[in-house]
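Input record (Table S2, row 488):
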Amino acid sequence: MRHAFFTFFLALALPLGVFAQDKTVKAVLEMGRTDNRTMEHAEYIARNIGGRLVGTHMLNHAEDWVAQQFRSWGLEVTVQEAVEIGVGFDRGPWSGRMLSEDGMVLHFGTPAYTAGTCGPQKGRVLLEPKNQREFDRVKGALKGAWVLLETGATNGLAIDASHKADSTRAALLAEGKEGSVLMYRQMVDAGVLGFIRPSKLPMQVLYNRACCFDLTMDNLPKACDILLDEHQFARIRQKVVDREDFQLEFDIRNHFFPGPMKHHNILAVIKGTKYPDEYVLMGGHLDAYDIATGSTDDGQGVSVTMEAARLLAAAGARPKRSIMFCIWTGEEYGLLGSKFFVQNKTVPWDKISNYFNRDGGPLAATSITVPPAMYDDFAEVCKPLADYNPEIPFSVIRREGEARSRPTSAGGSDHAYFAMNGVPTLSFRESDIFGCDFIYRDIWHTEDDLFDKLIPVYLEHSAVVQAVTAYGLANLDHLLSREGLYKD
Ligand SMILES: [Zn+2]
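Output record (zinc ion complex):
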């Protein structure tokens, strides 16, 4: 009897460390099923806030909200200023119609940081003059007119109205070239209301990349830059060719205001108990284009990151090393937030086990492929995920074949500057495992990046995957090995 008791207590005492870890993981898994709030975060970001462009008040509001949420869960929060833009931009409603017997309602968008109309503006429509001779023929009619530009497919960026682009156009004209947009500056000076370009659907609408950082309140854009449904564009063009008498009316509330507007990375930490200066990082970007609501790009990445943080905090996680949840700013303007974080060595590069970036579709994290030297660690840490949801099995895959070279240029998303500096940025493979027909191209920077495109079961699952993996890695007694991470 005595012997049996002794064995019982020994069995209880020995795996105590393991048992404590399991308790946190168990709590995360349980809450992940019964009290998963990923979609609450996503809904607030997409529906209550909406578009979150650099330079807008809504992005600042979103930053405040994210920081306040993290604090309410008991995390330490650092607000890191990373972006400044001289002139602010807020978008109001926009509408347009054809003033003729059929009264077509126009389906269009305008890149951010382009001119609005200051109330409804109506005008006749002209085809674009493509050389000096054509310009001279119509110049008297350009004032107060809308001009159709027959450009090829647009990528949603504004017409480049910079001085540099003006001199390129002037040089081409001087060589006797002709073509679309070449007479841009002359048309603006002649007093056109704006330009209309055809857009494929779903419409992709970005911003005034060439000029937005150089704007002052004294040199704001004057002519509107409208991207119109290509089918409507074709109908309108035909009417112009047929010399029909009609006007278009647009009411575009694009508001500029004096800055500077400052934007911030929101960095929340669960502090490590043993190695507080070593980190596992995860993140997504809060800024988004503003014609839709940035629900997938990257509201979902932010929501999954936030929920991973909340689950761990609520489970009372006390990992050995720190876990940092990074909500980046300025990604769409050139990875500005994460670049600032990395280049300023906010966290020393050699103290990061991995940075997990989430900025893809609203899909389920179903596997991760890792270099051989990391395999055993990941296999152990991800064990509880293998059958967490039998319908969404999770696996750790040992990388076969040679490592890739370390990237030398930035691109893609917020992992880029980490990777360029040798920090591991392994990421989960995200799958549309139930066949929900999600195609990233449909939402990527388009008017369709809306809340209803999100797939709750995938996002909720991914929050649990990220929480459990980050916690497990943070609890190892070593940083992840970088052996064989890159070819060099
Ligand atoms: Zn993105």
